[in-house]
């Protein structure tokens, strides 16, 4: 197993390479596929995403029961 000093050095090297290769060093929202600065749009998109996932099983069961 690696000792605590060795793992710390490896972790530092990984972060240095990550920052050098295109990361800006932890800007919030940088790695997300959507914009988090417009709160209204973010809220609407989240609600559509969550409600679609929650309601789809119920809609499928309702469709199957009505199909007969």
TrEMBL record:
It comes from the Eukaryota. It holds the Pfam family COX7C. Gene3D superfamilies: Cytochrome c oxidase subunit VIIc. Coiled coil: none annotated. It comes from Danaus chrysippus (African queen). SUPFAM superfamilies: Mitochondrial cytochrome c oxidase subunit VIIc (aka VIIIa). The lineage of its organism: Eukaryota, Metazoa, Ecdysozoa, Arthropoda, Hexapoda. This is Cytochrome c oxidase subunit 7C, mitochondrial. Belongs to the cytochrome c oxidase VIIc family. It is a single-pass membrane protein. The keyword Transmembrane applies. GO terms for cellular component: mitochondrial inner membrane; respiratory chain complex IV. The keyword Transmembrane helix applies. The chain crosses the membrane at residues 42-63. Keywords: Membrane, Mitochondrion, Mitochondrion inner membrane, Transit peptide, Transmembrane, Transmembrane helix. Its main location: mitochondrion. It is found in: Mitochondrion inner membrane. GO terms for biological process: mitochondrial electron transport, cytochrome c to oxygen. InterPro entries: COX7C/Cox8, COX7C/Cox8_sf. Pathway: Energy metabolism; oxidative phosphorylation.
């Amino acid at each position: 197993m690696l000792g605590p000093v060795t793992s710390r050095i490896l972790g530092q090297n990984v972060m240095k390479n990550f920052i050098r290769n295109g990361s800006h060093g932890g800007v919030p929202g940088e790695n997300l596929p959507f914009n988090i600065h417009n709160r209204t749009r973010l809220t609407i998109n989240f609600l559509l995403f969550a409600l679609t996932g929650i309601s789809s099983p119920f809609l499928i069961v309702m469709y199957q029961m009505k199909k007969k």
